[in-house]
Write the structure tokens for this entry.
Amino acid sequence: MLVPFEKVIHKLEGDQGDFIKVNQENCVACKKCLIVCPVNLWYMKDGKANIRENYKDICLECGSCWQVCDYNAIIFTYPKGGTGVIFRRG
């Protein structure tokens, strides 16, 4: 039985800051970030990867995009303490 998304993930409100940034100069348009992101945050524009403006609202903070980027085009840090995603179990 699948557990509804809303029962597993909770977002704490607050100013998270920009926890994902893109260095366009390093992007080679490999599209790995588009492929690996479970919530479809990434899109291509002018031959470069871009992140959606509302990424803070839907990002799961898994860091998968950062982990697969072999060119250091994605800069990922966890959001400020007291904000962001909380994963619940049980």
